[in-house]
Amino acid sequence: MILGWRKILSELLKYAKFTPANFKLERALVVTKLSRYEFEQLRHPGLSKEQLEQKLRNRGTDVEMVLYLHNLHKDFERRIVQSFKNVGCEVKLASRSSLSKEVMRWADVIVPVGGDGTFLLSAGRASPLFALSQQKTPIVGFNSDPLHSEGRLMLPKYFSENPSDAVSRIKSGDFKWMHRSRVRTTLLGSNGKIPESTDLFRHTEVKMEQVTTEPEMLDPEMASKYKAKMKRILPYLALNEVFIGEHLSARVSHLQLVLDHQDVVNKTKCSGLCVSTGTGSTSWHTSINRITSRNVDALLRSLPNSDSKDVLKLRENTEEIAQRYNQGLLFAPDDPRLCYSIREQICVGVWPSPKTFKERDFVQSVFVKSHCIDANLVIDGSISYPFNDGAKALLEIYPEDALLTIALD
Q: What integer pLDDT is reported at residue 130 of this predicted model?
């Protein structure tokens, strides 16, 4: 156990090498959220403003609320731009479609404005694998609608009301660096080719010229262990999680897992695999594994001595027990470990194999082989790759892949 923590501490210390020594805020790239109204405009490019609004009303959409939220976001976006200009910064705006390598290399800081989805988009494009650069451009996000969006990845909600305070502190260097671990996904196979990926927000294929990684030969030991010749790193790093499972949620996902390069092949049938970072532990990871006060009460009722004073006293505190358990699911954003979760694992007959296979655990690496029919490997709920029978992937965390972010108290 001591050796394990020493290794973790050693990994954390490596992050120091990837922190800018002389950060100066002169150029800010504001990444804009795609509002619901803008999304509908993209879906119906041939309609005028009046025709679009009528179409939305005909299908029961609350058009007034859609327009209100759109204008709310745009007004806040203008406030952010002006706050950076007020401290002498040059500002450029980029959307999901115009966020390019060139404009990201131009910026001293990347500023997603919106919610966690916009932050995840910016983080994905800030990958050194995607951008063909090891430059660490920090990210700091502002929640444009804290009343309707939690925005866990963004600055605290106080700064949504006072964005100029945040910008002034960043300009003066009054902040802390935070390194958020990310999952690197490596496909293993015979030819090193990457299948075409899909942007799940735009429902379009991602252009292959954006892919900047090259295939490599596996070393003999890895090639023998995983029955593959080549490896190729995907150009997108996962800040929250990587999910692997059948496209149709009602279909069972059949997967094989090797944890930490051990010799044991774990076989499972389930509703999918979620491999999370510390950042993602507040998101899907918690949703999969959390319990409610009703769960706690049902467990206490099932005890043989459920009518005893001790158990009855515990039943008066089921909410607190559930909250403590759920809080324990979270781990630090810079934790160098992964936590995998098997969704709704089948535990009947021969499944899982071996029976000792845990449905959730911390690991350093996860190797996954698919026996699915129509499955996907999805990075941060945004970029999807086909992952059908025979597909193989290795999920790991490297300190140099960490996302550099700005934290304000």
A: 55
